[in-house]
């Protein structure tokens, strides 16, 4: 709806009178052509827009119904915006004014004036800046020669982070995904996490059963004991590691992966603290190693830090950016410095807050 920004399910929209007919996507063109012919020939009886159900009449045309409706609307808007966004309240006022002045041009003039006021607010300027920044961040300037098509992504570690990365990689990215962990118990937990998220989307009709099945078929689970895991990883174009924050462990994984993957395979490490250059030290192909720092929970958090070290090549940077963007992330490329970007900013904030809390009793 216009106030909440949420989609309305097709059958509910028909029941509310917002649409006249609901058809399957594959039948849309044929039905639309048929309806157009019926309208042209006068065979189709048009729906009377003035005819209301008793519920709509009660809500729209009675004082008690109007009061209850606007109370509910304002309560929901306040809950969604926490009172920080002026636009939803302006929309409410425009609708109220339009209902009170159904004829003439006054309602349009009122809406125009409200729009002008909103366009001058700091909230408008900030939101436009965020939109333009996010749009700009979908493009990169990395010059790549002999670009290799990326079809398969492997994820090491089926914990909360690894499972989340695997989910968005297959669901939004559309890639074939391998999810590997040490044993069946670990991979089962990761699979359960992913399937639970997808099942909720299907239940809420945010995902079709077909898409659920397609995503599931693109996800392959492997363990250390799987006899074919080396062959599967050998066909991967990118490997994303999401294991514990242990430098030796990450270096061992790099060595293992480099022995079974192709020369072009990019190795991305999900770390929040370990320098990427340290992980790449001693590697056979250090130019293919890059940092991709996700935030938890991965399916919900939009930011992705891409951290190349000094020797990372352009192909690896471009690949990380491409995968991250297809995963639905806002990608920022940051230097390989302590804390990268977010944690480097967060540290001074936490210090300042702690100092303020410590001094607050004397204020």
Keywords:
52% helix, alpha/beta, 363 residues, 8 strands, 8-stranded mixed sheet, globular, Rossmann fold, 11% strand
Low-pLDDT ranges: none
**What is the element string, with H for helices and E for strands?**
HHHHHHHEHEHHEHEHEHEEHEH
CATH first level of the domain at 152-345: which class?
Alpha Beta
What's the shape?
Answer: globular
- The span between the termini is 46 Å
Q: Can you give a write-up of this model?
A:
The protein has 363 residues and is an alpha/beta fold. It has helices at 10-16, 28-40, 54-61, 63-81, 87-100, 106-119, 122-136, 160-171, 184-203, 209-217, 229-234, 247-260, 276-280, 314-326, 342-359; strands at residues 152-156, 176-181, 219-223, 238-241, 266-269, 289-293, 303-308, 330-333. Helix content is 52%, strand content 11%. The chain is globular and about 75 Å long. Strand 4 (238-241), helix 12 (247-260) and strand 5 form a beta-alpha-beta unit. It has 15 helices and 8 strands. Among the domains are: 87-136, no CATH class; 152-345, Rossmann fold, CATH 3.40.50.720.
